[in-house]
Amino acid sequence: MTVVTLGVHIVDVLARPVESIPAGQDTHLLEQIRVTAAGAAAATAVDLAALGVPVASVGAIGDDELGDLLVMMMGRRGVDVSGIVRRPGEQTAASILPIRPDGGRPSFHVPGANLGLSTADVARETVLGARAVHLGGMDVTWGLYDPAFYALLDEARAAGTIVTMDLLSNMPDLMQGVRAFLPHVDYLLPNEEQALLMSGATGVEEAASALLALMPEGTSAVLVTLGADGSLIADAEGLTRVPALDVPVVDTTGCGDAYCAGFVAGLVDGHDVAGAARLGTALAARVAGGLGSDAGLDGARELRDEK
């Protein structure tokens, strides 16, 4: 298996355009409602599959109808879902996202079974056999704050596996805790707010450099996504800016996950960090043009071929 995505799995229900919540029991007619596989592991897996990268996803969901739906959606997209565990009596994580006309996305969220994912749920051979492991949402998978899991990551890295990490929330308390993963990760991909909260810095360049100093020396890098301003790379060569593509934005849901997927695919294909970041940027631009984390994926393999 080329890539394993490990972490948060969510069912998203999205509606657009939403300008206000109806009063009482009034009804507003909308243009579009969709249900998608989301979360920093599940959405990244779906995006990787669209790029033609063999991918398996590992996480915890409920033994409920939402879980059935999530597994079905991911499987139909070509993701190996055999590593997803089902928790009897627990709810599959879900979000309701009323998307504003400008693409903004307030949310209503239930974290569900993600909070209970633990090292015991992760098959060693799945991690050790991967070309790359993408950790998605470690800030909310508290059962993986475990020396045994860190040791597994170190063993995989020693054998040549690339380990990347993205985050889910912008909660200050969680951002400090997730720093424990940094010595065991090759590439960190936070957004700007997450980078500032994790580092305590006041500027994004300072934040990226401070976080890089906490990671293994050598080929490690921090890539901070900056929305319309593109992304910032901090590595041993210094700081590099990668511009965003100028595209009409419908919904920003899943753009960070798409960036991660493109970046990981680029690394697996042998591109340097900047080249992999450009592939991530291109895939994120596609996703921003539609509703949901899997929007714009038809024909995504062409992006990988072009790079």
Automatic annotation (TrEMBL):
Catalytic class of the enzyme: transferase
Gene3D superfamilies hit by this protein: 3.40.1190.20
GO molecular function, one term: kinase activity
SUPFAM superfamilies, per the entry: Ribokinase-like
EC number(s) stated in the UniProt entry for this protein: 2.7.1.-
Positions of the Carbohydrate kinase PfkB domain: 14-293
Any Pfam family hit: PfkB
Keyword terms, alphabetized: Kinase, Transferase
Protein name, as recorded: Carbohydrate kinase family protein
